[in-house]
Design goal:
Number of helices: 13
Helix content: 55-70%
Strand order of the largest sheet: 1-2
Radius of gyration: 23 Å
Length: 405
């Protein structure tokens, strides 16, 4: 969905004599959400002439909007931003949301958190019993691919027409998306869920560094200051983490790096594309591409390990493993879809704050469910890191004052 702000500013004089009105421009600027993945909405050719549209990827996503700004973070493979601007001197006030809209929005936030909780719990259970993260990642992409194809076949969502040039531009994004989810699963298989999500709180740090290195977008003093508690909190939590091991730590760090690389790649490969795709469509295409990218790698590195015979030989409860893998994959796909729906209804700051709260909820519920031992210092480090993420989401909106000559 798109929200478009349109301003009419013709100058009319009250006269009895007929006169022709001067031609005035129609200013139409589209504002779209972005998130776990958030992608540009399709516009007509005339609309693109009126307002340049660009695509950029954020922490969990791609953005469509006028004139690309500095990338913002989003966790989980995928936070987003919605911006609306008007070239006129005054902005049209937004209508107040009704009670029903508030109920719907609250329900979506509840589903977003619930799907994340179930995904992390079931995914961790699968990875504890089945030590093949590549195969687990492949299953998640396979279930997502089946859902996408089903929606297209039943016309629940319009099947896109994709050109070869568009696929070439999307391919790098699919590669880093595949790697980001693979590294996350590798980390979850090695360390506690709470520790993986604590490390993933460092995504803003990687976003700032990569943007400065490859896009020339240097952070403000406020942004740099907000990164200090993030880095310090993660370091403190890591030193006191009971489940710490280097494989899990570096896998989570690699997930941060690949997820935030999407910011750079989206601007390098997508910003010049003539035709744009909406969020759901682009995410659907990337899911299918990730499945085909992951399949040969998983089979080559781990072989086919999901046969009942092999699982029974290793002492794994086959039905339980299949059920939990399916639930985890469905929740993985569902929470990202719900994230897009939320981003169509709230501001980027609201979504960023909600994402920070979501990470806290996931950490707390995983600690309680798995009875993860957490020391007071470890809790302090996690809290400081998450507070830094919240602060970053706020100061990122502060624009530097223009320099006067």
């Amino acid at each position: 969905m798109q929200s478009t702000a349109i301003t009419f500013a013709p100058s009319l004089s009250l006269s009895t004599r007929p006169r022709s009105l001067p031609a005035r421009g129609l200013n139409s600027i589209a504002a779209l959400p972005h998130g776990n993945f958030h992608f540009p909405g399709a516009l007509s050719a005339s609309a693109r002439k009126l307002s340049p549209i660009s695509c950029s990827l954020k922490q969990n996503g791609w953005v469509a909007g006028p004139n690309p700004g500095p990338p913002e973070p989003e966790s989980d493979g995928l936070v987003s931003r919605a911006t609306a601007e008007s070239s006129g001197p005054a902005e049209t006030p937004k209508p107040k949301s009704s009670a029903m809209d508030t109920v719907v929005l609250g329900s979506l936030f509840g589903l977003w958190y619930l799907f994340n909780i179930y995904f992390n719990i079931y995914n961790k259970q699968v990875l504890k019993a089945f030590h093949y993260p590549m195969t687990v990642t492949l299953v998640q992409f396979a279930v997502g691919t089946v859902l996408v194809v089903t929606m297209w076949t039943l016309n629940l969502y319009k099947r896109p027409k994709i050109s070869g040039s568009q696929l070439a531009g999307i391919l790098p994004l699919a590669i880093v998306h595949t790697l980001g989810n693979l590294f996350t699963n590798m980390s979850l298989g090695k360390v506690a869920v709470s520790f993986t999500h604590t490390i993933k709180a460092m995504e803003p740090f990687f976003s700032v560094v990569l943007s400065a290195m490859f896009l020339g977008e240097f952070p403000t003093l406020w942004v740099v200051s907000s990164l200090m508690p993030i880095v310090g909190g993660v370091a403190l939590a890591s030193m006191t983490e009971a489940s710490f091991n280097w494989a899990g730590f570096w896998s989570a760090m690699a997930s941060n790096l690949t997820n935030q690389s999407r910011n750079v790649l989206s601007k390098k490969f997508m910003v010049k594309k003539e035709d744009s795709l909406d969020n759901i469509t682009l995410f659907s295409i990337i899911t299918i591409m990730s499945f085909f990218l992951m399949a040969p790698i998983a089979f080559f590195m781990e072989g086919f390990k999901l046969t009942p015979t092999y699982l029974q030989a290793t002492g794994v409860n086959v039905n339980q493993l299949y059920t939990r893998s399916l639930i985890a994959a469905l929740c993985f796909h569902a929470y990202q879809q719900v994230s897009y729906m939320i981003l169509q209804r709230v501001s980027p700051v609201t979504h960023s704050v909600g994402n920070c709260v979501k990470r806290v909820v996931v950490i707390v519920t995983s600690v309680l469910f798995f009875r993860t031992p957490v020391s007071p210092i470890n809790s302090l480090g996690t809290g400081v890191a998450l507070a830094g993420v919240f602060l970053y989401s706020r100061v990122k909106r502060i624009k530097p004052k223009p320099k006067t000559a």
